[in-house]
């Protein structure tokens, strides 16, 4: 269930947007904090438990897309992006880097309120996600994953294989749910903490990239199996060290 009185952080450099929006959300049952920049956001996040961030894309200095990417590298706080530019590219990039939803200015506050509630419901109904704070090593098959360094090595001491952030999060999701069939929608939500209504084949591309690194034959995978009509299943036993 979503937390009672969820804590929303509004990050926008425009005071005339930030403050009325915070007031409106407060009147609708949320606890609200505000920040005018990425640096101010960092201070708030360190000091309080934030349930969702409403983040403006077009800000001076560190922009919203860069901030969203940085959030997603270390935290699973849901993010809804706001922008004054109705750019399809920005929308796609924002969702690909981990935003949960996207809204173009000017917007009706009631629509944002509905989207916030929808994201919180979805996020809190998901299976457990990789939290980004685990440490140590995880073994599967002939591979050992160094969680701290996001690097794979063969148990026999082979060459190290680095993983991208998305590949690492996808692998951790599989390792957290071995021998379970995970649908594409579930994987999109668990890996990226975002809505799964972008193009649902984007997760197929990420799985394909991961397979090239961990499978002996990426075209005939044995570790990450495709379940037709269902999604994907990680087939190996997992050993945490």
Automatic annotation (TrEMBL):
GO cellular component, one term: cytosol
OmpR/PhoB-type domain location: 135-236
Domain of life: Bacteria
Domain Response regulatory positions: 7-120
Keyword Cytoplasm: yes
GO MF, any single term: phosphorelay response regulator activity
InterPro entries: CheY-like_superfamily (IPR011006), OmpR/PhoB-type_DNA-bd (IPR001867), Sig_transdc_resp-reg_C-effctor (IPR016032), Sig_transdc_resp-reg_receiver (IPR001789), WalR-like (IPR039420), WH-like_DNA-bd_sf (IPR036388)
4-aspartylphosphate PTM positions: 56
One GO biological process term: regulation of DNA-templated transcription
DNA-binding region extent: 135-236
Cellular compartments annotated: Cytoplasm
Gene3D superfamilies the UniProt entry points to: 3.40.50.2300, 6.10.250.690, Winged helix-like DNA-binding domain superfamily/Winged helix DNA-binding domain
Keywords assigned: Cytoplasm, DNA-binding, Phosphoprotein, Transcription, Transcription regulation, Two-component regulatory system
Protein name listed in UniProt: Regulatory protein VirG
Organism: Thalassobaculum litoreum DSM 18839
